[in-house]
Task: inverse folding
């Protein structure tokens, strides 16, 4: 490995030249890491909805050509100036949002919204010098959320890298760098259901099933899954979801259906759909006096949340969370340990696997809504 230190590395990357067009495997040049950066050899990456959303570029002006990818696991190849916490050979998860450990958010026990390294989907360059580390014949190729893991090598700010147990299987724990941790943390860190309680999960995609996994770990006795897509219910049984409600099967609003099922409402609810009506239902279906609802889904930019203030005065709590309130560097290593200790199950989230040169198949699966996570193997 050391022979590449300080050198430009030529390797394969899946480049998105244009919005919505299949990725093209190209030979790219990856510059060495600069101050407070590391260069990683990516071994496994997986596809998350956020990659597809920005690749489609429906609602925003994405910078192209770009290298997407943010759910991944790899090994540090070399480190830039001033890096003391990471060394070549360390096993790591790159994360789309960071932790500088210096700002008011990083110093607060309650926040993970780092002011320096919080997710930025518009920025396609490194913050150190405003340049890209990827190029093809001198033409810059833009980064995505500071990670760009659809490349054999990538350069990442150290604040966006979690150093993990070197014994952890990278082909499994790579999915902890985004969606699964988001859902899991929403339940364990924010909703905090107690043993024997009831939890409603709105949206049974990877994030919602991560939230259901959190409810199972917390010892919830009833986990009610809500989804408009009945094909999601079969898969969700593996995640300890005990009951299912399809809002389409009822004339009444789903919050009333749930209140009837639970003698007044669930103890906790976690919304993982991104649909504002589901968000309102998720709030209104919690029990008065103690119920807590947590919003996770990213809504449409024009969405407005409407509810009668009495719903709050009657002692219901509404919260929202970003990346499950996990601080990437401080907290992700312990989530990996939950898997190593066999508390957390990850295999059931992995429904497909493809070699890197077939990465477009992973996009096709996600667009068809098939499966949960598709692992992309780099070698
Ligand atoms: P997904 O598309 O795989 O799953 C969403 C599920 O919600 C689908 O099964 C869909 O049928 C269901 N659904 C849609 N509208 C519904 C409604 N009105 N009622 C009931 N069910 C409904 O998505 P995912 O990858 O699991 O992500 C879920 C959400 O979490 C997305 O909005 C995503 O952007 C968001 N997210 C948030 C964070 C964060 O930090 N807050 C991080 C990652 C993802
Ligand atoms: Zn910070």
Result:
């Amino acid at each position: 490995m050391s022979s590449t230190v300080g050198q430009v590395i030529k390797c394969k990357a899946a480049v998105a030249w244009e919005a919505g067009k299949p990725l093209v495997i190209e030979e790219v040049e990856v510059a060495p890491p600069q101050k407070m950066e590391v260069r990683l050899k990516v071994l496994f990456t997986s596809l998350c909805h956020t990659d597809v959303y920005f690749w489609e570029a429906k609602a925003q002006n994405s910078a192209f050509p770009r290298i997407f990818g943010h759910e991944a696991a790899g090994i540090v190849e070399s480190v830039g100036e001033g890096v003391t916490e990471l060394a070549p050979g360390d096993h790591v998860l790159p994360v789309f949002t960071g932790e500088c450990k210096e700002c008011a958010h990083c110093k607060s026990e309650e926040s993970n919204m780092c002011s320096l390294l919080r997710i930025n989907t518009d920025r396609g360059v490194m913050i150190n010098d405003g340049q890209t580390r990827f190029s093809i014949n001198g033409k810059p190729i833009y980064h995505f959320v500071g990670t760009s893991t659809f490349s054999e090598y990538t350069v990442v700010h150290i604040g966006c890298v979690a150093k993990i147990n070197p014994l952890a299987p990278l082909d499994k724990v790579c999915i902890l760098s985004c969606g699964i941790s988001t859902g899991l943390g929403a339940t364990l860190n924010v909703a905090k259901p107690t043993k024997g309680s009831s939890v409603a999960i709105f949206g049974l995609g990877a994030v919602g099933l991560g939230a259901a996994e959190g409810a199972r770990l917390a010892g919830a006795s009833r986990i009610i899954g809500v989804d408009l897509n009945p094909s999601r219910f079969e898969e969700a049984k593996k995640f300890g979801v005990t009951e299912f409600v399809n809002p389409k099967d009822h004339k009444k609003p789903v919050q009333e259906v749930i209140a009837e099922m639970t003698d007044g409402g669930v103890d906790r609810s976690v919304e993982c759909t991104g649909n504002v009506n589901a968000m309102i239902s998720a709030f209104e279906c919690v029990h008065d006096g103690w119920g807590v609802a947590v919003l996770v889904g990213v809504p449409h930019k024009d969405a407005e949340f409407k509810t009668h203030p009495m719903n709050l005065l009657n002692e219901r709590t509404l919260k929202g969370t970003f990346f499950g309130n996990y601080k990437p560097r401080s907290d992700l290593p312990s989530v990996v340990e939950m898997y190593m200790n066999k508390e957390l199950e990850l295999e059931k989230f992995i429904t497909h696997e493809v070699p890197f040169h077939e990465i477009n198949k992973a996009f096709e699966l996600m667009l068809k809504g098939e499966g949960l996570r598709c692992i992309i193997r780099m070698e």
